[in-house]
Amino acid sequence: MRTENEFILHFGEMGSRWGINRTVGQIYALLFLSEAPLCADDICERLGFSRSNVSMGLKELQAWRLVRRRDVPDDRREHFSTPDDLMTIVRTLIEERKRREIDPTLSKLRELEIEGQDASDYASARITELRQLIEELTNLYEDLARIETEKLRTLLKAGSTLSKLVTATGRVIPLRGGSDTKEAN
User: Which part of the chain is the HTH marR-type domain (predicted)?
Assistant: First the structure.
């Protein structure tokens, strides 16, 4: 139980760094570790939070699509759980962060490029450069999001091997400032 408590407390502490409050982080951690779906009363009892804090936390986690309502036979209360598959959780988190943070930034950068007649050449170039980089990263994300889970897991495992190969040879992807840059082109 000590390990579970430390995990729950840590998720609460990390919550503010991830854009959620401590209570929401702890609720999520408890649900993540729970074998069976929990109702709000169970969460209140286990974490010592008020019913209103738990209800608000569950609503926020549902808005992030990180918890789901579950029916429990012979119990009329709403129960909640997290997805079982860790890759589903990671994909959901990335998708939600992209939707909430990256997409609005990209829209604003595009708007600034169109309306940026009064910006200096340097500022305009930097805005364009940032927009292009974010679009490239977004395209990479979209490509990865289409890969089925098992193939993505294989790709992740191969990632460190590929990185070591690239570092060792410098030929697959030229290293920045490396002496093999001309040779790789």
Answer: 19-78
